[in-house]
Amino acid sequence: MVRVPQPKRKSSNIKPEVLVKALKATRCGVLITDPNQPDNPIVYANRAFCAMTGYSRDEILGRNCRFLQGKDRKQPELSAIREALRTKTSCSTILRNYKKSGEMFFNELSISPVFDKSGDLTHFVGIQKDVTAEVQLKTQRDEFLATLLHDIKTPLLASMRVLNHIKSNGSFTPAENVLVEGVMQNDYGLLRLIDNAMDCYRPEQLTAVHRTYYDLTKQLAKCAAQLMPAAQQKRVVLFMPDQPLVICADSRLCERVFFNLMELAIRYSPRVGRIKVKTDFTPDYFEVEFSNRSSGLPIKFFSAAQNLLLSFDDENSTALALHSARLILQQHGGELVLQRSNKVTSFIARLPANS
User: How confident is the model at residue 152 (pLDDT cuts 50, 70, 90)?
Assistant: First the structure.
């Protein structure tokens, strides 16, 4: 056996002065704090941080990082930072911070703990980046899309009311009634797609949950009646619960959830299939499960629903429907669960029992 000589590896140790130069050269703001001193003061700030905030190094050192918040101390994201500092763990978030001039900017902050060889905490390192332009662009995009969707929805609703009024007066022939019914079904589908998209791009509209007591079984039957044409087209049979179940939730929002999940169960069911709608109740929660014998739901939507990282590259309506359902359930304190086992796909809407 001939041994090939291996090239001698150079030491990976980097001299401290090189690390200092790297911190000075980076375009991201870097802070180092000392949690072993009172109030966890800043002990290092690089040039990029000074340039980003307008403060000199002398004005920064020895202060706690909270001075960047000004009087804006009630940001929800601050709780994640406090928890990371308390538990000596890492976290990332975006905060509203303020420059020396008083100008607000969005600061993308990542915090990491530093430990010595004994495992004792010595410092925290904060990497910071001004993402104001990105946040403002996203906000403008979301507002534009929400406005566009609203402007499409308004005339669509008006035309549907006119068609429904004319149809109820018997102004159409039987053949025309069939055509009008098809148009209205398509319009209803477009309206649901718009509602789901508005939930995703303007989730703040879901913050107002108006809870009332109502019969869940009747609501599910209403959804099934609306989806019956789609089920009949695929020759899918719906098995529905028949026992009354009174819950306290936002009827309008929950109906969107149940309709979306039932529609997806039908969409991904094989032809001549069966869909079972089941309700379950425990001391902690109640849930509605829509299951079919199918593995047709693309796997990416399972990870999307669990991690809230949705891909909108294709199957847009599926992604929007799942995301909308999850947002509404979370607003109720519940969750969306997708399961697949033995070729059975289940869409589960779970709500806390106190609902």
Answer: confident
Give first-to-last CA distance, the chain, whole Å. Answer: 74
Q: How far apart are CA 122 and CA 32, in angstroms?
A: 10
Mind listing the pLDDT tens digit for each residue in 49-63? 999 999 999 999 999
Q: What is the CATH number of the domain that holds 292?
A: 3.30.565.10
328, 311 contact by CB (below 8 A):
no
Domain count, the chain: 2
Judgement on whether residues 325 and 229 belong to the same structural domain of the protein: yes
Whether residue 340 is contained in a domain is answered as yes
29-33 vs 91-98, strand pairing mode? unpaired
Q: What is the pLDDT of residues 77-107, one digit of tens each?
A: 999 999 999 999 999 999 999 999 999 999 9
Q: Is 329 helix (H, G, I), strand (E, B) or coil?
A: helix
3-state secondary structure of 9: coil
Domain C-terminal end among 80, 109, 131: 131
User: What are the residues whose beta carbons fall under 8 Å from the beta carbon of 201, sequence distance 6 or more?
Assistant: 142, 145, 146, 149
- Quote the DSSP letter at residue 238: E
The token duo for 101 is 């001039």
The answer to whether the CB of 205 falls within 8 A of the CB of 199 is yes
Residues of the domain holding 70: 18-131
**Residue 281 located in a structural domain:** yes
The answer to the question of residue 174 being in a domain is no
Structural tokens at position 94: 């975006």
Decide if 41 contacts 33 (C-beta within 8 A).
Answer: yes
